[in-house]
Amino acid sequence: xxxxxxxxxxxxxxxxxxxxxxxxxxxxxxxxxxxxxxxxxxxxxxxxxxxxxxxxxxxxxxxxxxxxxxxxxxxxxxxxxxxxxxxxxxxxxxxxxxxxxxxxxxxxxxxxxxxxxxxxxxxxxxxxxxxxxxxxxxxxxxxxxxxxxxxxxxxxxxxxxxxxxxxxxxxxxxxxxxxxxxxxxxxxxxxxxxxxxxxxxxxxxxxxxxxxxxxxxxxxxxxxxxxxxxxxxxxxxxxxxxxxxxxxxxxxxxxxxxxxxxxxxxxxxxxxxxxxxxxxxxxxxxxxxxxxxxxxxxxxxxxxxxxxxxxxxxxxxxxxxx
Length: 322
Fold this sequence. Notes:
This protein is 44% helix and 16% strand. By secondary structure, the protein is an alpha/beta fold. It has 2 domains: 201 residues, Rossmann fold; 101 residues, Magnesium chelatase subunit I, C-Terminal domain (Helicase, Ruva Protein, domain 3). α1 packs across α8, α2 crosses α10 and α11 packs antiparallel against α13. The protein is globular, with a radius of gyration of 21 Å.
């Protein structure tokens, strides 16, 4: 099997989106790359970071650059499923459906871990099935449909940890860190300017759909497919994979959905770089983002101060690269 040529027009379109978002977003290149991969894979992304790191701003700006409909939902403990998906109302002598904010192409679920289980289950149907049921009617959600959820890792009071079934629906979990000193100074300078940069819509829905189709033309060698499978299987049984120093440090490994996510993300990463083929480095580049929310450290790992990223890093060191 040989690679099929990809159209540079669609690669350039993604770069234009990157350029437009960078008018507002300073630094955070890894976060922006992860969001673009999520767009190309038509998948959902979880953003984790302390307040004030422009998570909300970058999502709104991304929607503007993609000319996509956008809604923001602030999750709170008293939120109801109807507040998200909509409800039936009595009006004019009859019942009719009033659609909720979930009916948009890009949804910002702000502080998603503050929502109770009923709300999260309603969101889960939308994320997985791309549809919403209100009463006895089912409505298809628009395409593309992307949930970008944020959560604060520091403040845990009044929060509801996301169940594994829901976190597994996110293609990636991106960790947002503090900016460098020079970047933070630039943030200050821009905030003091009278005129703010204008973000232009540079990517229409039809072009995005074509770009998503083009990603399938990126060649993924069989040996790289085996590498994706080996990485994920090693999270479930490190000892069987020959990684004895991880034995007992992983409580729960990644699901088969992670294998698909690794392969899709690696191809999308190669596409953004303008390549018609993926390499082992593409898989390594996306591995932490795809696996960190799917690998649960054991009590022994926590006692040794080892988090998911540490465990994934060790896997990448030990699993043979094709």
